[in-house]
Design brief:
456 residues, mainly alpha, two-stranded antiparallel ribbon
């Protein structure tokens, strides 16, 4: 098992090298500059679209704008925001959050382009239903000769869409917050029981398909973000005297790298810190990875640019708001200076210290909502990848693998799970960014026409 762990760790480190950072962040910066910040100037309009002002029930697609964003957010506003941020701070100190913010701002531009393309170039599955996603906009936008790139994305997506990280951290949270304080023995059996319970809950929802998934998460996502926001606000109020100090530390430590404990990149601690922030940012908001294109591609709209504007809100909510809340809770309570790098338990320690007796349980409630909602969305992504590869009539087989992976996630170590998903996310980013950069002029042409029409 140790050899497998080492292999997966080496694999994740290899794919998250300089070429991918250049493609993901360099490509995102190019899109940001190439668009001349055009989508950012219409953030108010994107909120209007989100509120349903332009909804048309006769437009093609399966779900409305709000449900599409909720489905996409339910897979990103999850344990990456709670456990992933905790891992980033434990390894890289406060400065890692600055680079996570940078990845989010760049990611907003990337999301605008990728998800505009998801609607602009929708394809049809073998059952004749309209579908969106990276694999479809590669084939429909670039042509059949690019299909190997689309297949590469779909194959990587089969593993990248597995819920193992969220399940792993939810299991750890239940053990750490609920079972251990009540003197209930934790170990393989307790984790297995939690995994089986999560399997049953997930099965009930995912069998209902996209309609049930989108309706469930569109209720869960706003509620869980609001509860988490109020909880962290209470922590910041309790520690108000150090809030500005630690907020400033995020900026000053971003270039000092004096708290970085990981492997240096190209011999430099700062390079390692930047890479850590980018990796955790990509894990948190998935900008440039491409999973969200499958949710936004199902949106009921005939205007691709509108969906790009909606998708752009994702990293803002996910990383700039939720991740920052987690980071500040960990920093102001000083728990980040401990040696605990097990992710969610670090965040739990912050909640317990600032809000005695009930803090842990508030966090557990948030974690349950975050994790369970992401279980629903990722199953949809995986079935779409399998549909593209071997036909829509066979997509049900993915759910069996998916359900089995919940048990594996609950009973396997964090490092193995984190490196596995990190690695396959990196593989998914390669075809996503290559196709997006090639097709970006078509998005800008459509954007200019759309915004000119909107302004008139």
């Amino acid at each position: 098992m140790s050899q497998i762990n080492q292999f997966i760790e080496d694999f994740a480190s290899f794919v998250w090298g300089i070429p991918l950072v250049i493609l993901l962040i360099g490509g995102g910066i190019y899109l940001l500059i190439y668009s001349r910040f055009l989508p950012f100037r219409y953030l108010g309009h994107s909120v209007e679209v989100l509120r349903g002002k332009y909804n048309n029930p006769d437009d093609p697609g399966d779900i409305n704008h709000f449900q599409a964003l909720s489905t996409a957010l339910s897979s990103t506003v999850g344990m990456g925001n709670i456990a992933g941020v905790a891992v980033a701070i434990a390894v890289g100190g406060p400065g890692a959050i600055f680079w996570l913010w940078i990845s989010a701002v760049v990611g907003m531009a990337t999301k605008f382009f990728t998800n505009s393309l998801a609607v602009m170039y929708r394809g049809k599955d073998t059952e004749g239903k309209i579908q969106g996603g990276v694999m479809y906009f590669i084939v429909e936008g670039l042509g059949k000769k690019w299909k190997p790139l689309a297949v590469f994305f779909a194959v990587a997506g089969l593993v990248g869409a597995l819920p193992v990280f969220n399940v792993n951290q939810l299991t750890q949270a239940i053990n750490y917050i609920l079972l251990e304080p009540n003197n209930i023995e934790t170990g393989f059996m307790s984790s297995l029981i939690i995994g089986i319970a999560l399997t049953l809950i997930t099965t009930v929802v995912i069998i209902g398909g996209l309609d049930r998934i989108s309706k469930t998460v569109s209720k869960l996502v706003p509620a869980m973000v609001a509860l988490y926001f109020v909880s962290v606000l209470a922590i910041l109020l309790v520690n108000y005297e150090v809030v500005f100090h630690y907020f400033g530390l995020i900026f000053t430590d971003a270039f000092a790298a004096n708290n970085y404990k990981g492997e240096p990149l190209l011999g430099g601690l700062l390079g390692g810190l930047i890479l850590l922030g980018i990796r955790r940012g990509a894990f948190s908001n998935e900008a440039g990875i491409g999973t969200a294109t499958m949710a936004h591609g199902a949106s009921k709209t005939s205007e691709p640019i509108r969906e790009g504007l909606i998708a752009m809100l994702g990293p803002a909510i996910d990383t700039l708001v939720v991740c920052t809340l987690t980071a500040m809770a960990i920093l102001v309570t000083d728990v980040w200076q401990t040696e605990d790098v097990n992710g969610v338990s670090l965040t739990a320690a912050a909640f317990d210290q600032a809000i005695p007796y009930v803090g842990n349980y508030l966090l557990l409630l948030c974690i349950l909502a975050f994790s369970i909602s992401s279980l629903f969305s990722y199953s949809y992504y995986g079935t779409k990848c399998l549909s593209f590869l071997i036909g829509a009539e066979n997509k049900k087989y993915y759910n069996w693998v998916y359900i089995l992976s919940i048990i594996i996630g609950a009973t396997t170590s964090l490092s193995f799970i984190l490196n596995l998903i990190d690695g396959f996310f990196a593989l998914m980013a390669i075809p996503t960014m290559i196709a997006t950069l090639i097709l970006s002029p078509r998005v800008m042409k459509a954007a200019k026409i759309y915004f000119a029409k909107y302004n008139n």
